Amino acid sequence: MRAPKAPFRVFEPIAGLAKGLWVTLRSMFEKPVTTQYPEQKKPVKPRFRGRHVLKRYENGLEKCIGCALCAAACPADAIFVESSENSDAIRFSPGERYASAYEINMLRCIYCGFCEDACPTEAIVLGDQYELSFTDRKQAIYPKDMLLEAVAGSHLLTPQKTEPGMFTRSVPEMKDPSD
Ligand code: SF4
Ligand code: SF4
User: Fold this and answer.
1) Is 121 a pocket residue for ligand 2 (Cβ < 6 Å)?
2) Is residue 7 part of a domain?
3) Is the CB of residue 53 below 6 angstroms from any atom belonging to ligand 2?
4) Is position 1 within any domain?
């Protein structure tokens, strides 16, 4: 592009200034976009990765089987899992084992979702909660009872007493193994 001739160059800053003022003037008459948070909350995007949730089956049993694959996959070393044995009299999850301790350090987590991908039972899910606040480093470590999905009734709480031989598989049958 050819540069404007010398007498016209003097108008260049004025034109730039006028353009900037026009943007300011125009925005003064636009409807303000204000969300009255926390009363109003904007819905998050479908692929949003928020605070983790430990999921349950419909019968209330916990999906987590304490295998610690999520902890192994975590690049930030944010997950701690300790597992124990189930029995039919005191059952937390299907199969042999359950997570007797499960903790996530939210100060370390980078919300990469690797834990979700590594889980064989789809027990750990990054949900849509983004309201995380703590005033102490210890409060940033979320224990299992904070992460576990809420239940609709006390009969769905864990541990449960189950029929012998009913829940022998740790990993549920998959409809589509290639999924
Ligand atoms: S989202 Fe990533 S960093 Fe956070 S706990 Fe899971 S694997 Fe670790
Ligand atoms: S959340 Fe999934 S990967 Fe992690 S211990 Fe539980 S079952 Fe294993």
Assistant:
1) yes
2) no
3) no
4) no
- Residue 34, domain member (yes or no): no
Q: How far is CA 111 from the centre of its chain?
A: 7
Reading the block at residue 79, the tokens are: 């997950």
Q: What is the atom index within ligand 2 of the atom nearest the CA of 67? A: 8
Q: From edge to edge, which strands make up the β-sheet containing 79-85?
A: 79-85, 97-105, 141-142
Under DSSP, the state recorded for 53 is E
Q: What angle do CA 111, 117, 103 make, to 5 degrees?
A: 55
Residue 41 DSSP code: -
- Token readout for 125 is 């899910």
Within a domain: 137? yes
What is the pLDDT tens value at each position of the chain, 179 positions in all?
566 666 677 888 899 999 999 999 999 999 988 999 999 999 999 999 999 999 999 999 999 999 999 999 999 999 999 999 999 999 999 999 999 999 999 999 999 999 999 999 999 999 999 999 899 999 999 999 999 999 999 999 999 999 998 888 888 877 766 65
What CATH number does the domain containing 144 carry? 3.30.70.3270
Domain coverage including residue 89: 52-156
What is the domain count for the chain? 1
